[in-house]
Amino acid sequence: MNKNKVSVLVIGAGARGEIYSRYALEHPDRMQVVGVAEPREVYREQFVAQHNISSDNIFSDWKEAAKAPKMADVVLICTQDNMHKEPAVAFADLGYHILLEKPLAPTAADCRIIIDAVKRNHVLLAVAHVLRYTRYTQKLKSLLDSGIIGDIISMQHLEPVGYWHQAHSFVRGNWRNEAESSFMLLQKSCHDLDWIRYIMGDNCKSVTSFGGLNHFIKQNQPEGAADRCLDCQVEATCPWSACKIYLGDAHKCTPHFRRVLTANPTEENVRQSLRDGPYGRCVYCCDNNVVDHQVVNMQFAHQQSVTFTMTAFTKMEDRKTRLFGSKGYLEGDGNTIRCFDFLTDQQTIYTIEEIEAGNRTQMGGHGGGDYYLMDRFIQAVLAGDQNLILSGPNESLESHLMVFAAERARKENTLVVL
User: Fold this and answer.
1) What is the 3-state secondary structure (H, E, C) of 272-332?
2) pLDDT digits (tens, 9 = 90+) for 163-173
3) Is the pTM of this model over 0.85?
């Protein structure tokens, strides 16, 4: 391996694979993308052009890449949730260090298989729990570790999924159906339970959970509505309208989300995608079955209690957290942290810059977490040091098991002891 630069093979050049690979464009002295496996021709060709990849290292399937001679130090596995285990195990066996998009896998058994493969082959693993890596999280963690609010007694944490994001990803999109991806808490909120575990710095001992799919069902379709928004007579009165979300100057989603619909998101191409593809469907006429709201209650090893709420029915914004301590109270919203001291009755406010000046905002997603995840991972590979990775195998497995326990608790209406 070039001791100053990490070579990377990307499996899945869609949204997450493309974003993480931008690190090579910002830091060509540290990282070079040398190979790609992507089944969709247009996305593959765009990615190849972006990174100037040799024709010898271009594949339409990850299995082809795994059969080729080892071409890189690292593999980024950014396939769909239920397509993680096989490539993760295969590339671990080939000696690649791995950055794996979250979640690890849709079942606890498959998660354990991946972790076992990584440990057996002595390769580095980073799970893309990007929330751990933000400057906001690191500042909040350092304040808590300094004892600013004393012992943590309890926590409230809110994930506001956002109304149009829910419609895009979890009603119309790739993560709408548990059989095709995984259950909602795993695919969307393993981020959050992992973050909670990291902030608490302790083991979760028991969980309960409540929630369901209440709104995005056929019974709630308005009278006169059509199965597609482009054909709908009442579309203008619907907050979930695909026309509102994707079309026109006032559309709600970012270029990143529009690119999921079509590799070239012009107005004409987006409109055609809404006419023919899944993203133009009425939200009340989809094959979705994942929940649209859920609450998880957790008790940690030293009797600390945590409540987590995930809901579609908000605007899309940063997570909100409140921490209640023996000496003070802290709340944060991804950008600002407010600490109140019980002894002095004084409040101190900390404002966090999302991403350091000089780092281009093209990797500013998740509060800068996308960038800092890649930065720490590349440093870890160069140093050969798993400890530089904040989301390594052991805690990632533990936080995934928390998620599986919570979903079992919801489905069985029971308390689950870990």
Assistant:
1) HHHHHCHHHECCCCCCCCCCCEEEEEEEECCCCEEEEEEECCCCCCCCEEEEEECCEEEEE
2) 999 999 999 99
3) yes
